Amino acid sequence: MSKITDKQGLLKKLIYHILPPDKWKLPVVILLGIFTGLSLTVLKISNAVSYLSDDPKACVNCHIMSPQFATWERSSHGRVTVCNDCHVPQDNFVNKYYFKAMDGLRHATMFTFRLEPQVITIKDAGKKAVQNNCIRCHTDLIHPVSVRAISNKMIIDKEETYCWDCHRETPHGRVNSLSSTPYASVPKLTPILPEWLSTSIKNEKKQ
Amino acid sequence: MKPLQDIIKSKPWVAWLLFFVTVIVVFIIGLFASSIIERRSEAEYTFQMVKPIAEFEPRNEIWGENYPREYESYRRTLHTDFASKHGGSKDIDYLEKYPELVVMWAGYPFSKDYKQGRGHGYAIEDIRKTLRTGGNKVSPLPATCWACKSTDVPRMMNKTGIGEFYKGKWIEKGEEIINPIGCQDCHDPKTMNLRITRPGLIEAFKRQGKDINEATRQEMRSLVCAQCHVEYYFDKTNNNYLVFPWDKGFSADEMEAYYDEIDFYDWKHALSQTPMLKAQHPDYELYTTGIHYKRGVACADCHMPYKTEGGVKYTDHHIQSPLNNVENSCQVCHRVKAEELVRDVYDRQDRLESLRRLVEKSLAAVHMEAKTAWDNGATEDEMKPILQLIRHAQWRWDWVAAANGLGFHAPAEAFRVLGTSIQKAEEARRLIALVLVKHNVKYPLVLADISTKEKAQKFIGLNMPELIADKEDFLKTTVLTWDQKAKERQGTLIKY
């Protein structure tokens, strides 16, 4: 019991510590409101909530993923899988969201600071996730003999071998530069402005 | 711990520090927000048109200025160098190949001229040249025949209204319909999204209680084709308004029941007096019964597959037989040698053709036998059930024969429909034999020689030299004025 009271005391002390004087309370509340509002705006315009889902549309929030989206959508895998089925680990919930969060933060940073290369290639962690997911679905197709064939080669060359070293066109095709599908129609983000507002702005311009 | 306000009282710089830290944080969040907006707007510019395209712009070359790869591949629909065993883009004269068709279509323009449909780029040239559309002296067809031929159709329908567009004769509207099937027929000029421009399909969906706007992207990749590659008829009671007979269902039997119920016929057969039905090209309806459709494959997946050129991937707009492009169409899913895949297609088509030939021989014979029966005093009552069988047999044969791909779009259904066609044609022949014997005609009859197109056309009384002369005159006069007027209207007119 005493521990909990201690904690409550600490919290009270902290709040008491940062509590502004009475005449500052109003401006501080307003400022905090602005701060929260701004943060919410950022969440909304970056469509942040969509990243919790498995919807492939979330992956083209950043338009630089359009070539990957377009080539996946029109491939054989486009009918049966979504991006996350292959690109994030599916062994358990924690792993999945940990991987997603780490990857997502890296992507967000690269995109914000315009660090994206002209041709985006997969990192080692991503390769491992994809390889495991190939095996997860196609486990019936992976005959012990063929697995051994790969292993022998791996032993001789002392290098890793992935499914797509041979199945090179699956499912995206070999290389996707940022400009490889210039006119492909991919889903777009809905405009930030609500429709009534943009139409009334348009109407005003006309007058 | 002292309250912050006390600290600030003794050390005012803490307040300043707090102020500036807050300023910096808010400033950074603001920058972040504006960066997100900026990068979002980039997405709008990835799809940028060099020259905005006007709504209802019919000229494909104007669209092509923005989309050179798609346009150039579309232009390849003008190639006529590929012939598969049973189709392709080469000119094939089907009346020469199957002369029985002349007799089966006696009294209908198809008996004059019926060739392999060439690529979309030839839509206007071929409809002008075919003997079916006639010449200056005789122009037998209604304006509705233009409905699927040109990007000018949506423009005109918007200008005059749909009902008005279908009204009148084919020859009266030629100067307005100039640009062959192309971009506008399937695409929205602003977003390039797929869209439906032909009212027939939208209306058919509505009557079935479906909303075509709810179609998914993958469905649209077939539905834009289903605007034209379907069965339809011209409603004679409503100024030849174009209607899809889909109200009872998609199959040959259900459409047949629909036509019977409204007592519709395309023409009265010149020999047998049967009220006949002419199937258009129920490619979509046949295809939807097939295994490829069930597995979610759209028309565009095989007829317009993805293509790589330099590092750029795009949809091949050279719409053609997938047999001329096995690598990009079939082999995307079927990991089998190209020759083997082609052989699989031919295997099915060869068998279908052999059944088709059976029907054609008995139908040509039964039309001639029916004429002899009429000539020897057969009565309406005796002939009525026979004519109904002929009507159904030929409709079912046509439902398969008129569709592209010689049944490959759904071989099992094509075999079933042809099977019932054989049964009905032979049943008609059996009944007519009884009628002939009853009227003291020696049976079996000695039938006329229709072993070539010329002999068959002569037999049904077509004056071919006159038709050809009229057509040549039409091409030298009327067509030239059409092109001239179109050039004045559009500013440019390119040759296809």
Describe it for me?
The complex is a heterodimer of chains A (207) and B (496). Chain A is an all-alpha fold and 207 residues long. Chain A has two domains: 1-45; 59-181, Orthogonal Bundle (Multiheme cytochrome fold), CATH 1.10.3820.10. In chain A, 54% of the residues lie in helices and 0% in strands. Chain B is mainly alpha-helical and 496 residues long. Chain B has a domain at 4-46. Chain B contains 22 helices and six strands. In chain B, the strands form three sheets. Chain B has a two-stranded antiparallel sheet with strand order 1-2. In chain B, strands 3-4 form a two-stranded antiparallel sheet. The model of chain B has no long low-confidence stretch (mean pLDDT 93).
Strand content of chain B: under 5%
CATH fold-type name of the largest domain in chain A: Multiheme cytochrome fold
* Element order of chain B: H for helix, E for strand: HHHHHHHHHHHHEEHEEHHHEEHHHHHH
Q: How many domains is the backbone of chain A divided into?
A: 2
Unreliable stretches covering 5 or more consecutive residues of chain B: none
Cα Rg of chain B: 30 Å
Spatial order of the strands forming the largest sheet of chain B: 1-2
Q: Which residue ranges of chain A are poorly predicted, with pLDDT under 50 across at least 5 consecutive positions? A: none
Number of strands of chain B: 6
Secondary structure tally: strands of chain A: 0
Mean pLDDT of chain A: 82
Please identify the structural class of chain A as seen in this structure. mainly alpha
Question: Separation of termini of chain A?
Answer: 71 Å
Identify the most extensive interface between protein chains: A-B, 42 and 36 residues
